[in-house]
Design brief:
The chain has five helices and six strands; from the N terminus they run H-H-H-H-E-E-E-E-E-E-H. The protein is an alpha+beta fold and 186 residues long. Helix 4 crosses helix 5.
Length: 186
């Protein structure tokens, strides 16, 4: 009788050790958990950081909307975004990030001036159509002989002003068109 209980006890211990080994192997030898050096000590700051990085949710946000889905704003509904892309549509784009609010073009060379090219960066500070909603920078690259010997200059304040004016004009036009479409639907 004693040998039967002894065998069961040994079987349980071996099973536990085997399962623990599989779990440890599944974690690549590392126990789960974050690196404490990468997270703030204060729980409120940790929660804030997790929410900013998209690793959490707020119950208030779920209770506010009557629907089960989230609220998404698409680039096609933002007049400033559409107007900016429309104004610089002749230039190749290097990076476009709607959620980050930035458009970066690639270097553009005019056919008439081969040794000079420009690059435009448009940062969106707000979705409202107003003059301080955009931060536009234009960089000029002037090269001698090849792309090895080049000068890079942040330049042309008059071109920045013209570009901003054109984007705001088109955004206002898009906003008026969208309001008219909504009126027609009703």
């Amino acid at each position: 009788m004693n040998s039967k209980y002894y065998f069961i006890k040994i079987f349980k211990i071996l099973s536990f050790v085997t399962l623990f080994g599989f779990f440890q192997y599944g974690c690549n030898g590392k126990l789960p958990g974050g690196d404490a050096r990468k997270f703030p000590d204060d729980p409120k700051l940790r929660v804030k950081q997790n929410l900013e990085e998209g690793r959490g949710f707020k119950l208030n946000d779920m209770l506010k909307s009557g629907s089960k889905g989230g609220v998404f704003e698409f680039a096609s509904s933002n007049e400033l975004w559409r107007a900016s892309l429309d104004v610089i549509d002749f230039m190749p784009l290097a990076s476009v990030n709607y959620s980050g609010g930035i458009i970066i073009t690639d270097w553009y060379t005019n056919e008439r001036i081969q040794n000079e090219s420009i690059k435009i960066t448009i940062r969106f500070l707000t979705n409202e159509i107003r003059s301080d909603a955009l931060n536009i920078k234009i960089f000029t690259r002037k090269c001698k002989e090849s792309l090895i010997n080049c000068k890079y200059i942040q330049s042309n304040k008059s071109l920045v002003a013209e570009l901003k004016k054109e984007i705001l004009k088109r955004a206002t036009k898009f906003q008026i068109e969208d309001k008219e479409k909504k009126k027609k639907k009703k």
